[in-house]
Specification:
The chain contains eight helices and nine strands. The protein has 250 residues and is of the alpha/beta class. The chain has one domain (11-246): 3-Layer(aba) Sandwich (Rossmann fold), CATH 3.40.50.
């Protein structure tokens, strides 16, 4: 993995990135640290706390969607207007980045389907590049397969015009890229040690109910060798986040 990349931008001339949170325990995590360290202005809207969505996306240079326990197919009042904001961002070439639920929201906004995955994935697992060399500018410095963190029971199909980037043994669609700037992830690369601890506590019942799944780990297993695992995960995040913020316009 390459070393840290710093993109120090002038805060006086930059519109902030907007980060949408949908669950108290599923904030930006390592992404927030990455943006701050690289001098990128960002603001957070806590949808789970009832904070209002913006009327349009023009005031922001990028749009980030985090994870959450709900389904994008749920009848929630904020989903439809948020899908409209995603479509507006894509029309305006404002980069969009989605993590898990966020990637599913991006997919649904662009006409793809969100369905139950055959196997629930919870914990650490390998993802692999699709084909010989998908999106070399984005994935070229990453190995052919690497470990990420997972927590999902649903999956997205690939929107028209997007390129499928990553897959796993239990979920064929782990990431896609559209127009070289919009990145949707089914997996989580934003994890921190406190986030994993919190998810294990909040999701204890879900883990117990899915104990027979071959892709569901117990909390103790998820927290084994945590520091070196997170270091490698953050190396993956550095690669993908650095490429994504290259697309940000002041």
């Amino acid at each position: 993995m390459p070393g840290k990349v710093r993109f120090i931008m002038s805060e006086l001339h930059m519109r902030p990135i907007v980060v949408f949170r949908f669950s108290q325990t599923e904030g930006p995590g390592y992404l927030g640290d990455f943006l701050t360290e690289n001098g990128i202005l960002w603001t957070q809207i806590n949808v789970d706390a009832g904070e209002s969505l913006p009327s349009d996306i023009n005031g922001f240079s990028g749009m980030v969607l985090m994870g959450g326990p709900m389904s994008v197919n749920d009848d929630l009042p904020w989903i439809s207007p948020l899908l409209d904001l995603i479509r507006q961002a894509v029309r305006l070439d404002i980069p969009v980045l989605g993590h898990c639920l966020g990637g599913q929201l991006m997919s649904k906004a662009l006409g793809a389907q969100i369905t139950r995955n055959a196997i629930k994935e919870i914990g650490w697992g390998e993802v692999s590049k699709v084909g010989q060399n998908p999106a070399p500018a984005w994935l070229g410095s990453l190995p052919s397969s690497f470990e990420v963190f997972q927590w999902h029971g649903e999956t997205f199909s690939i929107p028209e015009g997007a390129t499928r980037l990553l897959e796993s043994a239990f979920c064929a669609n782990q990431a896609w890229l559209l127009n070289d700037r919009h990145l949707a992830l089914q997996c989580h690369i934003e994890m921190t040690a406190p986030m994993i601890q919190a998810w294990c506590e909040v999701g204890a019942d879900e883990i117990r109910e899915a104990f027979e799944s071959p892709a569901v780990q117990q909390p103790a297993t998820m927290q084994e060798n945590l520091s070196p695992r997170l270091e490698k995960l953050h190396g993956v995040a550095d690669n993908l986040y650095a490429k994504w913020i290259e697309k940000i316009k002041a």
